[in-house]
Amino acid sequence: MSRNGRTIKRPYKRLPKGEHGGIQLLLIHNVEHLGKQGDIVEVKAGYARNYLLPHGMATIATDHHKRMVEKHREKLRAIELEKLKSYRDLADELGKQSITIEANANDEGHLYGSVGPHEITAALKEAGFSLANDQIRLDGPLRELGLYTVRVYLHSEVEASLKVWVVPTAAEDAAVS
C-alpha cells in the first residue's frame, strides 16, 4: 500500500473477517465466557490481535484448521474428559483440606491487614497443592479471625470448597500469656 509515493508497512497482517464483521478464530484452549477448545468463534479484531492470538489461546480459522479439528475432535474430547476427571479428583482432595493462616489481629479479632488469595495459595503450596491466585474466589478480603469456606475455581465446570482458618500469630499468643 502506498500513500504519496511512500510504502506504508502494516504492523500486523489483516485478519479475515467473519460473517458478522468480527474475526473468526479457532480456539486452541478453553476461554472462559467465550468457548471451548475446538470451537470456532467470532470476536472483535482488538481482542483477537491483542489477547487471544499472542497468548496462544486461538488461531485463525482456516479451512485446513477446521478440517484438522474435525478429524481430531474425538481425541480432543477424550483429552478434555481426562482433564475434567483430574480436576474433579483435585476438587475432592481440596474439599478434604483445611488450611491455617496466621495473621496479626487485635483483641476483638480484627486483623491489622487482610488475608487474600496470595496468602491462601502460599498456604496451599505448603500443603502440596499448586494453584494460581486467580483460582481462589473470595467475596472480599478476610479481615477477621475465624473459619471461612473459600471457593476454588479449577475449571469452568469444576469448583471446590476449601476450609480456611485465620488464627492469631503464635508470637502474639505467647505475649498475652
From TrEMBL:
Mind listing the UniProt keywords for this protein, alphabetically? Ribonucleoprotein, Ribosomal protein, RNA-binding, rRNA-binding
One GO CC term, this protein: ribosome
Q: Which Pfam families match?
A: Ribosomal_L9_C, Ribosomal_L9_N
In the UniProt record, does the keyword Repeat occur? no
> Which superkingdom is the protein from?
Bacteria
Q: Which residues form the Ribosomal protein L9 domain?
A: 35-62
- Family annotation (InterPro entries): Ribosomal_bL9, Ribosomal_bL9/RNase_H1_N, Ribosomal_bL9_bac/chp, Ribosomal_bL9_C, Ribosomal_bL9_C_sf, Ribosomal_bL9_N, Ribosomal_bL9_N_sf
Looking up PANTHER family in the UniProt record yields: 50S RIBOSOMAL PROTEIN L9
Function recorded in the entry:
Binds to the 23S rRNA.
Q: Which HAMAP family match?
A: Ribosomal_bL9 (MF_00503)
The family annotation for this protein states: Belongs to the bacterial ribosomal protein bL9 family.
Protein name, UniProt field: Large ribosomal subunit protein bL9
Source organism: Stieleria magnilauensis
Q: Which gene encodes it?
A: rplI
